[in-house]
Amino acid sequence: MNFASGLPDPRTIPKNEIKEIIAEAFEIYGYQVLQYSPSSGLSKLVKEVIKFVYRTRGLRANLNNVIIVSGSQQGLELVSRIFIDPGDIVVVEEPTYLLALNVFKLRKARIVSVPVDDEGMDVNVLEDIVKDLKKDGKKPKIVYTMPVAQNPTGVTMSINRRKHLLELAEKYNFIIVEDDAYGLLSFDYEQPPIASLMGLNNVVYISSLSKVLAPGLRVGYVIANENIINKMYVLKQFMDLGTSVLGQAIAQIALEKGVVDKNAEYAKRLYRLKKNLMIELIDGMFFSESWRSNPKGGFYIWVKLNKNIDTRKLFEQSKRNGVIFTPGANLCVNTYRCLDAMRLSYSNPSEDEIRIGIYRLSSLIREMANVS
Amino acid sequence: MNFASGLPDPRTIPKNEIKEIIAEAFEIYGYQVLQYSPSSGLSKLVKEVIKFVYRTRGLRANLNNVIIVSGSQQGLELVSRIFIDPGDIVVVEEPTYLLALNVFKLRKARIVSVPVDDEGMDVNVLEDIVKDLKKDGKKPKIVYTMPVAQNPTGVTMSINRRKHLLELAEKYNFIIVEDDAYGLLSFDYEQPPIASLMGLNNVVYISSLSKVLAPGLRVGYVIANENIINKMYVLKQFMDLGTSVLGQAIAQIALEKGVVDKNAEYAKRLYRLKKNLMIELIDGMFFSESWRSNPKGGFYIWVKLNKNIDTRKLFEQSKRNGVIFTPGANLCVNTYRCLDAMRLSYSNPSEDEIRIGIYRLSSLIREMANVS
C-alpha cells in the first residue's frame, strides 16, 4: 500500500487514446516527430497550451510568454537557476513540496516558511515576515506557492489571500512562483490561478500535463513575462537542448482534440471519490485527537496526529506492514513542527488498498500511542 | 542550405521501425510507458545500454555505473553541476562543441584550451599546461574531449595520445569527460573510447542515441564510477524527475532488437558518402591557401581560409544567399585564432544542397578575398 508516491491513478492515463494520437503524430509530423526541435518547444504545442490555459484557467498568455519544459520539475529548476543566488531568501509554504524545497536548498537559498491553514498560505504571516525583512534592507526573491489543491495539504488559497499576496509582491517587489500542478483537479469549483488576476508582472506560472494526461511524457510549461521566458530559453538549451519531441507532439494533439480536458474531468471525479473514501476511513479509524486537512483537490491529505508520535518511526513500522507514506518532517522547513504529521496520498492506490492500508495504519498508530 | 545545424539526415531516422517499436512498447509496458519511472532510468534500458556499449565500444559497465539522461547535453550539464565550482579550471579542445563551452562558462569555470590537430587534442600541450598549473598549486578539474570524430573537426585522437591523456589524468588527478556522441559514426575503423582502456577511474563517459536512432527521443546515458552516478541520480531527480519514459521504452526495444546497431551502420555509410562529396567540392572550389580537416567520422568539416576574411562577416553575406554555417569564432576560446575558420556540416543537407551551397560559398569567399 503506497500512500507515499505522487503517481496518478493508472485509470487516469488514457493509454488507448494516446496510442491513436501517436499514429496521428506520425501522420502529421512525419520523421520530424523524432528530429531535434527548438529548445523553446514545438510552436504548435505552444499555441495549444495558450488556448488550454485560457479556456481551463482563464489565464491569458501570448507566444512570447510560454516555454515548454520537461515537466513542472524542470520549471522549478529553471526558476531557481534564474532567480536564486546563494543566500537569497525564498519563502515556501509549510508544509510544502519536497522536491521544490530541495531545488531551492541546492541553490543555497535561505528558506523561510509560512504556515498553511484551511485558506491556504497565511498571507498575514508572510506580510509580517516581509516587513521585518524590509527593516534589514532585505526582501524575499521569490515566494513559492501552490494556491490550488496544495501539496501536501490539498487546501486552496482563498481569493482574498491571493489578492493580498499579489499586492505584497507588487509593493515589496518579489516574484510569486505559482505551481499549478493540481490546478485542474479542483473538486468543487474552479479556482483561478494568481497569474490570471492581474497579469504576469510579478508571477511565474508553472504547470504540466503529468496529472491530467500522462507523467511519462514529461511535458510541462512555464508562463511568465517575456524577459523571464527568454532567459529560460537559453538555459533550457544548455540543460537538455529541448523536451522530447514525440512527447510534445502527443501533448499538442491531445490538447487539440480535447482529450486532456475530457481526461481531467474524469480524473477529478475519480480523485474526489478516492479522497472521500480515505477521509471517511481516517475520520472513522484514527483517534479523535488527530487532525486532517480538508482537501479541495489534488492527490493528498495532511494528517497531524497531535500525539507524541514521531511519524518517521511510525514509517519504519508501517513499512514492515506493507504500508508507506511520507513523514511530515520531510516536507517542512521547521521539521520539529511536523514530527507528528504525515502526507497520505490517495491518487495511486486502489480503493481496496486504501481500505486495507488505512486500517493497518490506524492500528499501528493506536499501538504506538497506547490507545486502544 | 543549412551547413550550420547538427541535425541528422532524415534518412537515418528509422521512422517506420520506431512506429512498430512503439506498438510493442505499449504491449510490453502497458500504461507504465506513460507513468513516472525512476530518475535513474528504466532498468531494462540500463541493461540494454550496458550490452550495447560493450558490443559496440568495448566498454564494460555494471548497473551502478549508468544513468539514463535526456540526451548528451543533460550529461554535460550534470557533469558541470557536479564537478565545476566558480573559478575551477576546465580544459577544452580548440575548436570545441559550443554548448559544452557555454555550459562550462555558465558555471563560471576558467576555461583553458588545447589545440586539435590531425591526431586530435595535442596532449603534449596539455601536459605543459598541467605542469605549469601545478607550479601554482593548481590543476584542471576536468578535461573535456571528443576523442572520436571530434566536433567540429571530425578528427579522431590517436591511441597513443589517449593513453597519454589517461596517464596525465591519473598523475595529476583530473577527470576526463569523454563525449562519445559520434563514436558509432567512425568512417574507417572503430576507435575504442578512452573509458574502455583502463576502467572508469578517471573518466566520465557520455553518449546518446541522438545520432544513431532519433534525437527527438532525447535519450542518452552517462557511464562513470558509482560515486559519480549516485550524485547524478539525485541531481537528475531535481532537474526533471526522469527522462521521458516512452522515449526510454523505445530506446530499450530498439537496442534489444538490434535496430540501433543496424541503423548506425547505415548512417555511417551515408555520412561517409556525404563527407566525401563535400570534401571533393571544397578541394575543387575553395582557393588553394585554405585548409580543411580530414574528418574520420561524424557530421562536420573544419575549414580555415587562411586569408584575412572574418567568417562572421562572410556569414552575413552567405545568409542573404541562402547558405548558413557556423563561424569559427563561436567554437573557440581564443576567438582571434578562429576568425577565418568555419564549421561546415554535411549531416542534414541533401547531396544537391551540398553541391549548390558549397558552390555559392566558394564564390562569395573568392569575392571577399578578391581572388578571381
UniProtKB/TrEMBL annotation, chains A, B:
Domain of life: Archaea
Limits of the Aminotransferase class I/classII large domain: 28-358
GO molecular function: transaminase activity
Keywords: Aminotransferase, Pyridoxal phosphate, Transferase
Cofactor(s) essential for the protein: pyridoxal 5'-phosphate
One protein family per Pfam: Aminotran_1_2
Gene3D superfamilies: Aspartate Aminotransferase, domain 1, Type I PLP-dependent aspartate aminotransferase-like (Major domain)
Family matches, as InterPro entries: Aminotransferase_I/II_large, Class-I_PLP-dep_aminotransf, PyrdxlP-dep_Trfase, PyrdxlP-dep_Trfase_major, PyrdxlP-dep_Trfase_small
Self-association state and partner proteins as the record states: Homodimer.
Family: Belongs to the class-I pyridoxal-phosphate-dependent aminotransferase family.
Protein name in the entry: PLP-dependent aminotransferase family protein
Taxonomic classification: Archaea, Thermoproteota, Thermoprotei, Desulfurococcales, Desulfurococcaceae
